[in-house]
Prior knowledge:
alpha/beta
Amino acid sequence: xxxxxxIGKIICLLEAKPKNPEADMNVSEICSYWGYESEExxxxxxxxxxxxxxxxxxxxxxxxxSYNTFLLADAGFEVWLGxxxxxxxxxxxxxxxxxxxxxxAFSFDEQIAYDLPANIDFILNKTxxxxxxxxxxxxxxxxxxxxxxxNPQLAQKIKINFALGPVVLTxxxxxxxxxxxxxxxxRHINRHDNLCVSSKDQAVFGEKDVLSRSNLYSILEFLxxxxxxxxxxxxxxxxGFGYDPQNLNESRFDVYTGHIPAGTSVRCxxxxxxxxxxxxxxxxxxxxxxxxxxxxxQSTPPIYKIEDMKVQTAMWSGGxxxxxxxxxxxxxxxxxxxxxxxxxxxxxNHMDFILGKDVASQVYKEIIEFINKDQSE
Length: 377
């Protein structure tokens, strides 16, 4: 009888909640589900990657409160949702097979040099506009700072750079990602891609993509969608991104795990780890002076000069953000030459900027006010 009682408790723990339909939808389907018309376009980068980009031309409840994802559209703006190579919506190339190591031989440098410019130029060419407003979160801020600092022509096409949960300088980054960085080792061999990770790292990361939708996330989605143990998933997010469990809607865990994270290359993880170890915002380190000389004509990777990022910038950061640590954010602010505004939200962790219950009032509506004010001047 005790055995039967125990089994009964386990079954109750694993009892699934009703599933949110968006958990298994793509971007276009989610837009349609909420009553918004969207278009999907394909952007080709100069080095042949094909990136899906999504367009929402107009909203349906202009001036009224709406679902967070569509606040900008409902405020009367045309919204474009871009992608970088390696994400679930950007796994095609004109000649490279996504299952090949060659396809995944990229770091943040290629996303900065090719992906962001391709997305921005495509949007401007399609709409006939000369400038746009850029909104980035986390890595999206990293790519923006790198691209706008090194590409003045691209920077001139941006009216305001809105930076949410910035992860650019990472010297004081905390949590599980620092642990991963400290355990990540590189070794280089003379081969076509000049990169191979150690056997220990191969067991964890492999040699191509990482953080993609896989069996691991299917398991995570299964567990997080159980009524009695969803709080454990919230705690899991806390370890990685910071503490603010009251600001997360646990009833939508299946939607979050169905779409986040979206995947990247192992080399991007190595690049990210290098920034944590060095505390520098710089290009990918190939691991030796000779290889760096081969790629950059200098023995160390070039620094991305934040001081050269002249785009007007408004920034929102979190007091409990383990990735965008407050000290790193202050150092970034000190180096940002044209900062219009900075707001630190004391209770925010890293994911609150996209998943927080109060993100509309804390962040998004302020962005809309900035844009409206800019357009009225």
